[in-house]
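User: I'm putting together notes for a lab meeting next week and I want to include a structural view of one of the chains we've been expressing. I don't have a solved structure, so I'd like a prediction I can at least talk through. The sequence is below, exactly as it appears in our construct file.
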Amino acid sequence: MKILLHSCCGPCTIYPLEVLREEGHEVMSFFYRHNIHPYTECLKRQEALETFAARQGLRVIVQEGYDLEGFLRNAAFREKERCRYCYHDRLRSAAMIARKGKFDAFTSTLLYSRFQKHDMIQAMGESIARETGVAFFYRDFRTGWRQGIEQSKALGMYRQQYCGCIYSEKDRYYRDPKPSPASRKA
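Assistant: Thanks for the context. Below is the predicted structure for the 186-residue chain, given as structure tokens.
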């Protein structure tokens, strides 16, 4: 099959690409940019993916523009549900490109990460497939989590420490400075 692989970054592309190619599929990658903050982070991830792709002979479609404002408008006041919006936008964008490019199916490296909401991604991918008429290729790539990490480190790839959105960046770095109840008694 001809499959469009939504790739969130280079390191997460390693194992899914390997599996899909071993199964005999023709794979092309799609890099979605609007959710990644700050822009310098977006560029680091894009460069890491493009460098890896060049080594692998993998063609990459890079989303045009950088509509961070659109992403934030759609996530605002729904911060607790931001992943649902983000998954949907990325998967739907991939499906639309797959349809335009006459791919047999689309899938995502989101299915590789043990930190993502796997069941939600699968259900959403299947729903978008019905809506767009392009099959969603489901595979639980989490089985190769450790292998992908080891390979990305061996390749010296840039490895990000958060999913990409401004909210996850905050979750990673910000710690509430309020004193604990025990320390207030002192």
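A couple of points you could mention at the meeting. The helical segments are 10-22, 39-56, 68-75, 82-100, 118-132, 145-154, 166-173, 181-184. Residues 82-100 form the longest helix (19 residues).

User: Perfect, that's what I needed.
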